[in-house]
Amino acid sequence: MGSQIPKATARRMPIYYRCLKKLQDSGVKRIKSNEISQLTQIPSATIRRDFSHFGELGRSGYGYEVDYVTKVFNELLNVNKIIKIALIGVGNLGKALIENNFRRDQNLKITCGFEKCEENSGKILSGVPVYSIDQMKEVLLREEIHVAISTVPSEFSQEAVEMLVDGGITAILNFAPGRVNVPEHVDIRYIDLTSEILTLVCYNDWLLHPVVK
């Protein structure tokens, strides 16, 4: 993908691809942006603007050819390429991630884990080798891995992320809510499970018991 594509657009591309793939598998041949909007909950104007970054994908009043646009996004996302992922922190959450290991996305695979605790390192979990954290840089460079997931607690996440970056990692999904410092070339995303659940509960409660003024 070219550098001119906005980050927000790039983040929505997998959503578009999954939607289009389902439509293609269902035999849908043509679709309009307002129909994609209903399926993805992304405004149709945003969809048209995003799609415009990739050339003339559709025609006004006609819509988009599902097979063609799916092929374009397939090539842009390089979905047939296996993306190797490293996992740092093989506690309960880490073990669950390894056990699941992106079963629905065959191109994403956790291929190695790293653990500071000697009790959890030196093992093979669901086919994934777990190394000592001291071996991280060596393994990451040898395996040419650039994507990582960190389940290390917030108080240790800065150190863990620095080790990942030192090993050539440029994309990190961090399950610790505390923000960490990374170089400009490293993209890091955060998943705060507690915050997400509280937001979900509050929103659900508001739907069930809206405040009437």
UniProtKB/TrEMBL annotation:
<comment type="function">
    <text>Modulates transcription in response to changes in cellular NADH/NAD(+) redox state.</text>
</comment>
<dbReference type="InterPro" id="IPR009718">
    <property type="entry name" value="Rex_DNA-bd_C_dom"/>
</dbReference>
<feature type="DNA-binding region" description="H-T-H motif">
    <location>
        <begin position="15"/>
        <end position="54"/>
    </location>
</feature>
<keyword id="KW-0520">NAD</keyword>
<keyword id="KW-0805">Transcription regulation</keyword>
<feature type="binding site">
    <location>
        <begin position="89"/>
        <end position="94"/>
    </location>
    <ligand>
        <name>NAD(+)</name>
    </ligand>
</feature>
<protein>
    <recommendedName>
        <fullName>Redox-sensing transcriptional repressor Rex</fullName>
    </recommendedName>
</protein>
<feature type="domain" description="CoA-binding">
    <location>
        <begin position="78"/>
        <end position="179"/>
    </location>
</feature>
<dbReference type="Pfam" id="PF02629">
    <property type="entry name" value="CoA_binding"/>
</dbReference>
<keyword id="KW-0804">Transcription</keyword>
<dbReference type="InterPro" id="IPR036388">
    <property type="entry name" value="WH-like_DNA-bd_sf"/>
</dbReference>
<dbReference type="InterPro" id="IPR036291">
    <property type="entry name" value="NAD(P)-bd_dom_sf"/>
</dbReference>
<comment type="similarity">
    <text>Belongs to the transcriptional regulatory Rex family.</text>
</comment>
<dbReference type="InterPro" id="IPR058203">
    <property type="entry name" value="Rex_bacilli-type"/>
</dbReference>
<keyword id="KW-0238">DNA-binding</keyword>
<dbReference type="InterPro" id="IPR003781">
    <property type="entry name" value="CoA-bd"/>
</dbReference>
<keyword id="KW-0963">Cytoplasm</keyword>
<keyword id="KW-0678">Repressor</keyword>
<dbReference type="Pfam" id="PF06971">
    <property type="entry name" value="Put_DNA-bind_N"/>
</dbReference>
<dbReference type="InterPro" id="IPR036390">
    <property type="entry name" value="WH_DNA-bd_sf"/>
</dbReference>
<dbReference type="InterPro" id="IPR022876">
    <property type="entry name" value="Tscrpt_rep_Rex"/>
</dbReference>
<comment type="subunit">
    <text>Homodimer.</text>
</comment>
